[in-house]
Amino acid sequence: MLRRHHSDAAVPTARGGGWPDMLGAVAALGALLGAAALRAVLHTNSDVAWLLTLGEKLLDGQRLYVDLIETNPPASALVYVPAIWVGRTLGIAPERMLDAGVFFVAILSLALTGLLLAPVGMVRGGSWRWLLAASVGIVLLLPNYNFGQREHIALLCILPALAATAVRARGLPLRPPLAVAAGLGLGLTVSIKPHFALAALLPEVALLTRLRSLRPLFRAENLVATALAAAYAGAIVAFFPAYLTDMLPLLRDVFLPVHYGLELLAAPAAIFWAATGLWLLLAPKEVRRDPLLLIAYLASAGFLGAFLIQGKGWSYQAYPSVALAFFALAAALSKDPGSAIRVGCTARLALRTACGIALAVLSYQCAVWFGGGRDFAALASAIADLKLQPKLLAVSADLSIGHPMVRYLGGRWVARACSQWVTEGALLRQRQALAEPIRSRLDGHIARDMIRLADDIRSGRPDIVLIHLDWMDWRRRMMSGPVGAAFAPYRYVQTIGDVELWMLPSVSTIKRE
Questions:
Q1: For 49, which of 3, 404, 411, 508 could close a Cys bridge (C-beta 3.0–4.6 Å)?
Q2: pLDDT computed for residue 365 by the predictor
Q3: Is 1 a member of any domain?
Q4: What is the pLDDT of residue 345?
């Protein structure tokens, strides 16, 4: 059982100095500059690009879940609207404005976290500079291609709340402004995706167990977070009723049931979390007892649970879990840099060394996992040769076929959804043994998805239509049924990789010099 110790009381923060501290500050600055350089060379994540396009359509007056089809709850889309609006006002591309906004939120989050931890002695001596350098790398470099994803933003929002919980675990009070700020961040995190509440729930259980009281449940951070989440739920009912009446039943039928099972326990995030736990378990007792390490690791477990619940296996959904496991490791080393070798017997030292080597390998695997994305250079070049700033539509269940390429080309997305995820989900479910009423519902979803696609082609008149050559045989679907008449005027141009280009004959082509 967790126990409260008098040694957990606040201690004065030691003063650092010398070359090691200066190197730590330089490392923090280097991580910040490296993250900025990375944003300059990486293209926008596919999901983020679609949500930016969605946000632009919202600002232009279209209605979420009525004119636009989206799987995520409203906050996941609305969180990008401020960057788009400010970018329009200042004449800055939404992508660059979003990058700047995420940098700002990251710096604000780390600053609030530091203000919560430093005064009570939970960040000591000159080692705080190295912890800061690690933190900057975790929140700005580690996301890589997943930069700006909702999970990335949620992690930044929840960090002050987790720091506040660690401070409360020592029985110490918080200044009201900091408690309110932490509560707002927690409320935003839960609003982005409700199952992110797991990242706060497990640390909360640890806190209540440690203090042997339920009174901390009613502290300022939780009250503010609950009020914000309740206001958000009311806003959904008032302003987005179609999400409840139309979208949730659709998600129930074709999106949520399509997921991986226990094989996700072999994902890099799950293995990294387990290896981190073993490494911390082998640490000296005074390190393991630190509430900051425990809270970070339990929050990592909560986000890992959210990753498993979603069941999609997408790397961005695992990022917060990996990031918080890194935070726990960084906090352990900053608390006592020599603890990695002062572990008692030779066998214990060997085991912890082997675990450290495994963590290094897993860290590389996670970094690779968070990188990448579809290479659309050849496809974009072929489209640009046919039409500058085209109206575009992609027929695929993979949203990366059209996003972020349409934004890269300065084009306009004319479909109401990011992809044909509805048809894909229904077809995948129909591979299972299902009752006839469910099969009939799925057939209805497919039929409506095809009617919607036909309407998008007729009303949007895309210059270029991209057809993905995958197992769902989209070309056949485009030539028959409700889509056939709308697609009839289009002519095949060429195939790039696994994507066919079709174009309206009336479109005038402009060859680039």
A1: 404
A2: 84
A3: no
A4: 61
Looking at residue 289, what is its pLDDT?
Answer: 81
Residue 49 lies in a domain: yes
Strand 491-496 to 412-413 pairing: unpaired
Strand order of the sheet with strand 491-496? 412-413, 391-395, 464-468, 499-503, 491-496
* 179 plus 59 within the same structural domain: yes
In a domain? residue 339: yes
How many independent structural domains does the chain possess? 2
CB 378 within 8 A of CB 496: yes
Nearest CA to 203 out of 294, 83, 84, 80 is that of 294
| 467, containing H or E segment | strand 464-468
Q: Which domain holds residue 27?
A: 17-369
d(CA 207, CA 446) in angstroms, rounded, equals 48
pLDDT at 113 over 50: yes
The rounded mean pLDDT for the chain is 89
C-alpha span between 264 and 261 (Å, rounded): 6
Give pLDDT tens digits for 115-149: 998 877 666 655 677 888 899 999 999 999 999 99
Last residue of a domain, one of 369, 394, 416: 369
> In this structure, are 21 and 167 located in the same domain?
yes
Q: What is the mean pLDDT of residues 496-506?
A: 93
111 burial (CB, 10 Å; 0-12 / 13-18 / 19+) is: exposed
pLDDT digits (tens, 9 = 90+) for 308-355: 999 999 999 999 999 999 999 988 887 755 554 455 566 666 776 777
Same domain, 359 and 391: no
User: In angstroms, rounded to a whole number, what is the distance separating the alpha carbons of residues 428 and 447?
Assistant: 15
What pLDDT digit, counting tens, does each position of 73-89 carry?
Answer: 999 999 999 999 999 99
Residue 8 lies in a domain: no
Cα angle 342, 345, 347; round to 5? 110
Give the Å distances, CA to CA, from 39 to 97, 145, 448, 455, 487. 12, 9, 39, 37, 38
Give the residue from 348, 369, 390 where a domain finishes: 369
Q: Are residues 181 and 257 in the same domain?
A: yes
Residues 348 and 418 in one domain: no
pLDDT at position 290 is 86
294 & 420 share domain: no
* HSE-CB for 162 with a 13 A CA cutoff: 33
Is 119 found in the same domain as 30?
Answer: yes
Residue 42 backbone phi and psi in degrees, to 5: -90, 140
